[in-house]
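Can you make up a protein sequence with its backbone structure tokens?

===
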Amino acid sequence: MHLQADDFYSALSHPMRLRAVILIKQMDELCVCELTHALNLAQPVISRHLAQLKEAGVLLARKQGLWVYYRINDALPSWALEVIQTTQAGIANSSPYQDDRQALCMMSDRPNQACC
């Protein structure tokens, strides 16, 4: 995969997109409804951010029934994967990233556990 550094960093430059990437990295894969709950955003807003991350090549999406799930693109260059991993490890236990993970864990109707 060919990825321009400016496209990669531009995609991660918005605080909500960075929060989404960090949460997805921690959980491996998340449904749009899980991200809307954890980040406290309306579905159209989170979908727009996810579309930008997907367009930049940072995320991959898969559809399962009515739900769309996002995960980090494993085909990213190693330098980009290392940036995401290092960033996640460095900030995961600080606010708002830890708060996002806690909000997700409090979600009672998560997909694959129950219906969204």
Remarks:
- The chain is about 55% helix and 10% strand.
